[in-house]
Amino acid sequence: MPSSNDDSLVVSSDRLHPANLIPELCRSFYNLGWVTGTGGGICIRLGDKVFIAPSGVQKERIEPAHIFVLPYPQPAPSPHTDRVFLRRPALNLKESACTPLFWNSFDLRGAGSCIHTHSQHAVMATLLWEGPVFRISHQVGSDFSVEPARY
User: What's the chain look like in SS3?
Assistant: First the structure.
């Protein structure tokens, strides 16, 4: 197993590699108004690895070197306590505060990625929609399903 500072996990010339794609998506989402400042989070699961954006970093300033990498699935006792990391950034950053939500989307829904947003438009859409799933298409990805937040 790689050490927890294995930068090879986030260095790739492939623009679709999760460590390159997450910062690009964060910049795009910020410019579209889908995420604000440090609010929300994003992750991508690729095979047996999960790539997670840091918490507390402006979305438009995230870089591949800021990305956390965790094994999937997490070893016992729980993915919500004492998480195992394959890679942590050299900077003193924390993984997204949304990590437990991300893990539930993987374990309960088989998701390949997850975006947690605080965008006023996204929140309003989920509050107005009365069905169990809000489905949109023709966005950055090919098809999104969103379980509406219920407050």
Answer: CCCCECHHHCCCCCCCCHHHHHHHHHHHHHHHCCCCCCCCEEEEEECCEEEECEECCCHHHCCHHHCEEEECCCCCCCCCCCCCCCECCCCCCEECCCHHHHHHHHHHHCCCEEEECCCHHHHHHHHHCCCCCEEEECCCCCEEEECCCCC
State residue 1's pLDDT score.
46
CA nearest neighbour of 29 among 148, 118, 133, 123? 118
pTM surpassing 0.85?
no
Q: Reply yes or no on whether the pLDDT at 140 is more than 70.
A: no
Q: Which residues contact 142 (CB under 8 A, 6 or more apart)?
A: none
